[in-house]
Sequence to fold (609 residues):
Amino acid sequence: MKAVVKFTTVALVFTVALILTGCPKKCVQPVKEEPVIVEEPVEKEVEGVPQRVELGLQTIYFDFDRSDIRPGDAQILQKNAENIKRAMAAGSKFTVTIEGHCCPLGTSEYNMALGQRRAEAARSYLVKLGVAADVLNTISYGEERLVTNDPNQYHLNRRCEFKTAGQ
Amino acid sequence: MKYLSWLLPLTLLAQNPDTTPKPAFSADELWLKITLSGTPRKRLSLVIADFLTPRGTKPETMALVTTVQNILTADLRYSMYFTIEEPESGKVYNFSTDPKKPDLKGWATTGAQVLICGDYSARKGTSLLTMRLYDLASSRLIATKNYPWQQNYRWLAHRMADDVIKLLTGEEGISCTRIAFSRALGAGHKELTVVDYDGAGMEQLTSSGGLKLFPDWSPRGERIAYCSYGTQSLNIYCLELATRRVNTISEHKGLNTTPSFSPDGKMIAASLTFEGNSDIYLLDLNGRIIRRLTNHPAIDVSPTWSPNGRELAFVSDRTGTPQIYIINVDGTDLRRLTFSGSYNTSPVWSPKGDLIAFVQRQPDASNQICLTNILGDTYIRLTSQGNNEEPSWSPDGLHIAFASNRTGAWEIWTMDWNGANQRQITRTGGAFSPAWSPRLAR
Fold:
């Protein structure tokens, strides 16, 4: 809830700033200089790169060599869908990139494809819950971005992360 | 039975509890099934005389000439075609190799069939290394070959080795080959790197950051296809080695992955996901889609060409687990190749056409390199220590490069096709996805 409010504030300030300065599309205003949002940890903006937006979307996990959504993770997706829909209803402009990841127990080429299928599975699930398909992108990182190298924690690598970016 | 020792790795037959039981077969039966294309069974015996340098040659040049002799010896030993006679430890062969009156009768007492001599000479500013081959049974000169001395003495030695192989066996050697791989330089950072097949001369090919994955050489060695991320997709690019220019091949939405050059170098097979899920496509070198080969909701990835370009093997999990399939290049006659084990991936078709190496997940959860004939009715496991993945054939089909973490770090290794002589090639850590080059001119 808090995150959504914060996000709306940022979006509002950003829009106001744009209107005030009449900045052309390519020019990006340094949002971090606005005093209103000093406490907001908005990532330092690089020209041309969309800023990270915080919707509080949670990571989901998978069994080895599987891409079906487990019951517990279905609940997480339900919450993620609600958060996305609420932010959209509030008029925020953003996209969510669903990143599929795998653990190094598999092999790297197959894992690249498996990560994509995990991301697509999560995407389909969110769309079924009413999230507009066109705000959801997918990409796989296979086993290229592990969160842990500890074999006892490999299950934490088998995941989908949800990265939100404003437009 | 000289080649009985070659059969030893066959005793490491993969034992997988969840496979359908197969009739036991003897090593000889398996040998016949696995070696239909005919690996040399009887090794020619060579002896390599110490290379000669004229009186007054600088010590550093003498050392380099000895190094060339050592590299030549290592190449010939590696080739699998020869045995090399050596004096007992602490002794030397001191028969004459004087070109005018070589002591061939003396050399014949070493038991070798062929004598290799080398002479370094420097006249009027040009330096030459002259190689002579003698048949010791008939005491006749087989060939003489001159090599202008060059800065890159390692490649001079490699060229000599491949000439010896060609002269004595009629086959093309692999001494003038390199192995490209994806080298981790930090989190989320892998660059294309290349190393001679014997581990010397490592060279970084790219330096633009990001992840560079799954390299594949064009059949003439002038370019390397690989994958790297764009803003919303994993794309296929092509590095032109002469100019270091990078061309974009395929950048559809989602994955453009696991590129594989056709044997004629005119097409790239790859796995693309832009039509909903991963399927195998054929692209031209501009990335235009020539044909969609598979159309199935399952994962289809890692295509590899038969050497005649008429078929491709690839990985699909259409039955619920990843298995290897073969399909005709026109998209017809799909058939399953692997039936044992629940996770078979990373197929690579041997340049001789009769074998496919692949990676199989074992009951102990490790990944190991296996070899099957293209009938898929028998297979052998080639590795056992640590995890061994991402096989790539040498152009002569007698060796396999792969990535192994048996030392605790991921390194590139090579082995003979039957699993013998496993050798560590890199010592950098973070070395993945080896791709063995074709023969290169240097």
Remarks:
- Confidence is low (pLDDT under 50) at residues 1-38 of chain B.
- The longest strand of chain B covers residues 114-123.
- The first helix of chain B runs from residue 27 to 34.
- Chain B has two domains: 4-36+177-436, 44-169.
